[in-house]
Amino acid sequence: MNTVLAIDIGGTYTKVGIVGEQGEILGSKVFDTKAKRPFTDFQKDLLYNINGLLGRLDKAAQPQAIGIGAPNANSLTGNIENPPNLNWGKETPIVDVISKAFGLPVFIANDANASALGELKFGLGKGMRNFVVLTLGTGLGSGIIVNGRLLLGAHAQAGEIGHVNVDPMGRYCNCGLQGCLETYASVTGIKRTVFELIAEMREASPLRRIGFEDLTGEDIAKAAIDGDLLARRAFDITADILGRKMADTVAHLDPEAFILGGGLSKAGDILLKPVKASMEKNLFVAYKGKIKVYLSDAPRNAAILGPAALAWEHISETSGLE
Amino acid sequence: MNTVLAIDIGGTYTKVGIVGEQGEILGSKVFDTKAKRPFTDFQKDLLYNINGLLGRLDKAAQPQAIGIGAPNANSLTGNIENPPNLNWGKETPIVDVISKAFGLPVFIANDANASALGELKFGLGKGMRNFVVLTLGTGLGSGIIVNGRLLLGAHAQAGEIGHVNVDPMGRYCNCGLQGCLETYASVTGIKRTVFELIAEMREASPLRRIGFEDLTGEDIAKAAIDGDLLARRAFDITADILGRKMADTVAHLDPEAFILGGGLSKAGDILLKPVKASMEKNLFVAYKGKIKVYLSDAPRNAAILGPAALAWEHISETSGLE
Fold it and tell me: B248: closest CA among B296, B295, B281, B294?
C-alpha cells in the first residue's frame, strides 16, 4: 500500500501519522510539543516518535514522502520562521532536518494551508474548486483554494485573513497591528469580547466566575447553549464581525463556500447561523444567495490529514497522475 | 498579420479597434455610448463603427476573434447584467449579438478584469504572475491575476474590491450597501470627501466655487498640486483608506504588485506616495517591504488593449500556444 508520513506541529501537541491515499490512518502518535524548549529537544522527540511509527509498519507500507503542517512555515524556504508560540527562534530549517533524517522528499505548508489541502482531498472540499478554510482557534488561520489548487501568491504567503482589519482603532494584535480580525473572531477573540461584555453588562452570567486564562471556548459555547445572555451576545458580536469580513473575502475571491474549523467552530449553530446571516447581509449584490458556509466535519485527531494531503499532492504531481 | 477586434464599452464612450498580438493598434474608432438609449440603438452604432473599421482593413488583417470589455459583463453567460450606468435593462445578450453579426468567436469580461488582462499582456504586468489592478474611475473596478491567469472564482464574479467595507456606518453605495470602498477611493469618492471637508474646514479653497456635478478629479488634483490645503487633505484621506484596504487585499492574495489606473491615478505622486505609505503601515509583518505599487502607464486611448488581450488569451489557448 502507498503511504505518506504526515507531521502536524502545533503550539501544544504534535501529531505524526502514516496516511494512505484515501485518508486511511495506518498509525499515529501524539506528543507534547513543549513549546518552551529549544528546537533540538523537540527534534529528538519528533524523530523518536516517527521511528516508533515506522518500526511497526510493514515494509510494503513504508511512506514515499513526508508532509509537514506547522505555524509560520514558509513553503519556499522550508523553514519555520519566527513562530510566536514556539521558542525556536528566527528560522528553524525543519524540512532540511527531516529530509536528512529519512531520505524522503519533504513538503511543508503553514498549518491553515495544510488544513485547506486536507479539506480538498479528504473533507468537505472534495469536488469543489474554489473555497476558503478559516480555522478559528487560538488565532484565525486561513487557506484559500483557487481552481483546485492552494493559492500561494507571489511570496508563498497568501491567506492571512486573520490579519485583515476590522477597526483601525481596535484591539491590539500579537502581530503588532491593531484591529486584526483574529483579535475578534477566534477563541481568544471571543474571550476578549466576553470580558468586554462583563465590564459593560449588568446581567448575571456563569462566565463572571472564570479568569481570563482559564476561560475556554467550550465554556462560552456551553453557556450560550444554556441560554446565558452574555455568552449569546458574545457569539452574536463575533459572528457579526466574522460574517462582515467573509463578505469582503467573497468580494475578492468569489468562492463556492467557506469551511469553518478550529475550536470555535465546535459551537455549531450558535456560531454558524449568525455568521451566515451577517455574511449574506453584507454581500455585494452579484454574490447574494450563492455562497455556502459549512462547519468542518474533520475530527480533531484528523489534523494529520492536512499535511498528508500536501505530501500526496506533490507525489501525484511528480508521477504525472494529476 | 494576425489580429483581433477589441470592443471597450464605457458609460460615456465606446471604443472599437483592431489589435495585433504585440498590442499594435491597426485602426480604432470612438463613439458616444449615449447610455440613456435602449440597447438596440447602441447596437446599430456599434455595428456601423465596426463595419467601418473592417472595411478599411486588408483581407490578410481581418480579425480572428473578438474581445469585449464592459461594465457588469458576465463571462459565463455572455450578457451584460443590470449595468447601473447603461439604460439597457436586466440582461443584454451582447456576445450573442456580436457573434451572430460577425461569425467569429467572442469573449467578454467585465471592464476591470479586461484591464488586468491588458496589463498582463501589454502593460506593467508583463512578466508578473500575481498582481491586482485597481481602476479608480467613477467607481472602483478591480481585476486579479493569480498564477498568470485572470481569477474568476466559482461564479466568474471574483474581483469586486470596490465593494469591500470601509465603515459599516459609512457612505451609501449605488450597490445598496453602506461604506463600500468605492464610495471613498474613486473619482466620485474623493469628490464626496471634498464636500465633507468643505463642510468641516474653514480654509479658503478654489474647490468651494464648484458644484458637485461639475467638480472633476482633475480639479481636485490640480488644486492639490497647487498646494490647496483642502484638496491635499482629500487626497490624504482617500489614500489612507485605499492603502488600508490594499493591505487587506494583500492578506488574501500576497500579490507581487498593485497597478492603479483610472482617472484618479492621473494625479500621480500626490496619490501614489500616501497610498504606498498607508498600505505599508497596515501590512501584516510577513508582507512588509515586499509589495510594489505602480501607476498604470497605459494611455487613455489604450482601453481597447484589455479586451484585445482577452481575445488573444483565448486564441492562444485554443491553438495550444500557451
Answer: B281
